Structures are given as structure tokens and as C-alpha cells.
TrEMBL record:
It comes from the Bacteria. Pfam families: RepSA. This is Replication initiation protein.
């Protein structure tokens, strides 16, 4: 706690003392621990009542009236590490298990261990060049003549901002989802060609499954990391055909990535050229091994990598992690229902047609990110259907950061339900209701939203709780890593 209090302003310190000295402090701490140290918890007021359906006996009655401040605090569930590290940790854990289940199998998620025998690779598809940027080439010297250290903030920024294609960058980000869709369509065709099958015959013989995550490069361009797997026609439960191999899958991926079909063309607009977007020349395809042999990446490494980037967004490029568009016009800059561009009467009265709800010049962001976000707003009138300003804080990218094909493995919803069921079982046991059939219990509830977040003092205390929980997890992980396999099995 001493480290937590160091450097705090007097107002925050005073609030900490007020919270710590309140009668309900122990219960408040318990609520925050149950949220994992959530940085922005949701406040609820209300009650829940459990009754026996047959006898009408009241089995449990809970109300928030006796909670600190008359409120129950629950986790916000935000996936972004920049907004809530605690909830992002949970999201990353779910993503890890989702990806790893599709690589190693998991009986609890109905994914057989035989999925390990299916051809699978880890693929990285990058963006094309939009102009030279400060980087760390293999010879160690950037074009500017400097050997940039890893933490140099200038890395990824344009060598010449006057000639850098900021518009091309945000338009590529905006169309990256469509480019991925074209890639997966072409990939199936390339696999069918190499197997000597028609498209229809391929669907009867094999299925392509994937799980992917988007990552922003330091220059602000999006790229995708994907686990791509070849299954039998019924997904991970069925064995792939005899012709399926890692070599065939790798060749098909490389061919699909450069094929002319895998191109998304953005039409010319006022002052903007016609732009055919394709993947960049840096394409990486590597086999995934079950265990570390020193040559290729492992299942655990891949799952950890995908999970890590599932909780990040454009803030890692120096941009803001909150939306900057005008809420009244949703970033269009237009106010009338007919959305007539060019009409003075159609301009949003709040943002005066800019589509922005924030002054980019005043935001604490890097100049490179500011130019990219400004390009989104400038291009919005030229491409009114692309919602560029609405996604300016994401540098134009409007897709899901992590996604998967239908039959890759389990779903995040299923993982959350497993966790909810486990907690519900714990609660029934604690209340002495575990011997009752769930169907015999009637649950009535009434909940109301009552706000969110912490006071400054609560925020500092919650951060301390989150760090303690993280330390405990790391200690347990290290202990398991050094524990003999037989002991791990017995402990589990």
C-alpha cells in the first residue's frame, strides 16, 4: 500500500483515507476483489429472491440496501488493457483458451485432441507501404541515419510527413475486413485447385478453419495474425483428407495472398485517386508444433500471442483509446435525414460539419496519429458510407479485433457461460442449496443501473488490489511451471 500512496495528490490521499475509514470498507474490498480489481465497475441497485417452487419457502433474499453506498459493483468487462487491465486480463485468458482449444483440443469444449494432427499454420498478413517511416532495419541504421532504440517514440512515424500517404493508410484499415474476406474465399479455391477438386467437392471433403487477431503496426497500419487449419468436412471432429498437408496449406495461403482476386478497390473521389488495396509483401507462414523443438512456434506461444493483441487497439500507435466523433451526427457531419452533402442546411449544428466531437489539436496524442485521425475526418465526405470519422480513434479500422470461423473451436460466450455456471455452483454450495435441483428453485430479481467507476481514492485502492491479484496469479503460474507433471495432475 505504501507504493500505492507514493506521489498521490492530497485530494486523492484524503479520499483514500475516507474510503478506508468507512464502516463498509471490508465489504467494498470484497466487491472489488470479486471484480478482479476492475478499474471502472458497473454499479447496480436492486434485489434477488430465491424460492422453492413447491413449498414457496424463501431460500435466499439479497438486497443491495446493506452494501457500501447501497450498491453492488460488477466488472465492466472491457476488453482493452488501456481502459481496464483487470477485465482485459480475463478477456485475454478467454481468447487464449479459445485459440489453444483449436490447436490442442479440449474435452470440456468438445474439441478432440486429434485436432493436433490436422495441418495448421500461423500466418501474418501485413499492409502495403504508404511511404518510408523510421524503423529498425536489419543493418541497424534507419534511413534517417539513426540507430533507433526499441522505445524510441519516433519509430513508425513518417520520414517525410508531407509526402506520406495518410489517406491511403486509413482507407486500407477501413477496408481490411473486406480484404480478409476475399483472402479466405480465394484460399479455398487455391486449396481445391491443389487437391484437384471443384469448390463443391472441397466442401464435401475438407473445411478451412481459422482464428485471427488484428494488430496495429507502429506506423498505424493494420495487419492480421491468423491460425489457419485444415479439417475434415465436419470441422475439428473429423480427420482431414489424405491429401491435406502443411505444405499444401502453406502454398495455398501464399498464392491466395498475392492473387489478383484478393484486391479491394476503392473508387476515385474528389482529389483522391482510385486505390487497389492488396496485402503487403511481408507474408509470414509458419507451421505450428505441439511441442517446442527449437524450429517452429508452439501451440502455447501462438495462443499467448493472439491473446496478447486481442486486448490492444490503436492506442499503441499513439492514438487515443476513446471515440472522437460527434455523437449527434455519429461522425457524418450531417444533420438532416436526407444527408445532402454540400448543403449548408445539412451540416450538423454541433460539429459544424466536421464530424468530430473533439479538437484533435488538443488531444494528448502523437503527431503521426493526429494526421491519421485527421485524414479520417477529411475523407468522410468523400466516402460517406465508410464511417471513417466514427472510427477515427481506430485509424479507420472498423472490424472485430479478434474473430474466428464457425467451427474453429469454442466461443467466447461458451467460455463465459462455463465461468458463470462455476460461480453459480459455488454460490449454491455456500448458501447450502447445492442439494436442490435448479428446476425446483424460482428466482425473482430486479436490478437497476446506478452509475459506474470509482472516486479518485477508490481508483487508487482498486489498482492496488488488481496488482496484488496479478502478483498472486504470476506466483501460482511460476509454481505450476516448476511442479512435476504428476503433482500438477493431482493438484488439478
Amino acid at each position: 500500500m505504501t507504493e500505492t500512496l507514493t506521489g498521490l495528490d492530497p485530494a486523492t490521499l484524503g479520499d483514500i483515507l475516507k474510503v478506508a475509514g468507512s464502516p463498509g470498507f471490508d465489504r467494498w474490498q470484497d466487491q472489488i476483489r470479486r471484480t478482479g480489481g476492475c478499474a471502472n465497475p458497473i454499479h447496480l441497485t436492486g434485489w434477488t429472491l430465491a424460492k422453492d417452487k413447491t413449498t414457496g419457502e424463501t431460500l435466499r433474499h439479497y438486497t443491495t440496501e446493506h452494501e457500501p453506498g447501497g450498491r453492488l459493483r460488477v466488472a465492466c468487462g472491457n476488453r482493452r488493457a488501456s481502459r481496464c487491465p483487470a477485465c482485459a486480463w480475463t478477456y485475454a485468458g478467454d481468447t487464449y483458451h479459445l485459440i489453444r482449444a483449436g490447436l490442442a483440443g479440449d474435452d470440456t469444449k468438445d474439441i478432440p485432441a486429434t485436432v493436433r494432427e490436422h495441418p495448421r499454420v500461423f500466418t501474418t498478413l501485413t499492409a502495403p507501404s504508404f511511404g518510408p517511416v523510421h524503423n529498425q532495419p536489419s543493418n541497424g541504421r534507419c534511413r534517417c541515419g539513426t540507430n533507433h532504440p526499441d522505445d524510441d517514440p519516433i519509430l513508425g512515424t513518417a520520414l517525410d510527413p508531407a509526402t506520406y500517404d495518410y489517406a491511403g493508410t486509413v482507407l486500407f484499415n477501413n477496408h481490411a475486413g473486406e480484404l480478409w474476406q476475399r483472402f479466405t474465399t480465394r484460399l479455398r479455391r487455391e486449396i481445391a485447385t491443389r487437391a484437384g477438386l471443384t469448390q463443391r467437392e472441397l466442401t464435401e471433403a475438407a473445411r478451412v478453419s481459422y482464428g485471427k487477431v488484428a494488430e496495429f503496426q507502429k506506423r498505424g497500419a493494420i495487419h492480421f495474425h491468423a491460425v489457419i487449419r485444415l479439417d475434415g468436412p465436419d470441422g475439428p471432429e473429423s480427420a482431414p483428407p489424405s491429401w491435406a498437408s502443411v505444405t499444401l496449406l502453406t502454398d495455398a495461403i501464399r498464392a491466395a495472398a498475392v492473387h489478383a482476386y484478393t484486391t479491394v478497390t476503392v473508387p476515385a473521389a474528389d482529389g483522391q485517386p482510385r486505390r487497389p488495396f492488396r496485402w503487403g509483401t511481408q507474408l509470414d507462414v509458419r507451421p505450428i508444433r505441439a511441442f517446442d523443438d527449437g524450429a517452429d512456434i508452439t501451440e502455447q506461444a501462438v495462443a499467448s500471442y493472439v491473446a496478447k493483441y486481442a486486448t490492444k487497439a490503436a492506442e499503441n500507435t499513439g492514438a487515443t483509446d476513446t471515440a472522437v466523433h460527434c455523437r449527434k451526427c455519429r461522425g457524418t457531419g450531417l444533420s438532416d435525414r436526407y444527408n445532402r452533402p454540400g448543403s449548408a442546411l445539412s451540416r450538423c449544428a454541433r460539429c459544424h460539419g466536421s464530424g468530430l466531437g473533439e479538437d484533435l489539436a488538443q488531444l494528448p496524442i502523437t503527431e503521426h496519429a493526429r494526421r491519421l485521425m485527421g485524414a479520417c475526418a477529411a475523407l468522410q465526405p468523400l466516402y460517406p458510407d465508410r464511417a471513417l470519422t466514427r472510427w477515427a480513434h481506430m485509424l479507420g479500422f472498423r472490424g472485430h479485433f479478434s474473430s474466428k470461423s464457425r467451427r474453429y473451436s469454442t466461443t467466447l460466450g461458451a467460455l463465459r457461460q462455463i465461468r458463470a455456471d462455476y460461480r453459480a455452483a459455488q454460490e449454491r454450495e455456500a448458501l447450502g442449496l447445492d442439494d436442490r435441483e435448479p428446476d425446483t428453485v424460482l428466482v425473482l430479481a430486479d436490478w437497476q443501473y446506478a452509475g459506474h467507476g470509482h472516486t479518485p481514492g477508490e481508483s487508487a485502492l482498486a489498482a492496488s488490489i488488481a496488482r496484488d491479484l496479478q502478483l498472486n496469479r504470476e506466483t501460482a503460474r511460476e509454481a505450476l511451471a516448476t511442479m512435476p507433471a504428476s503433482d500438477v495432475e493431482a493438484w488439478a
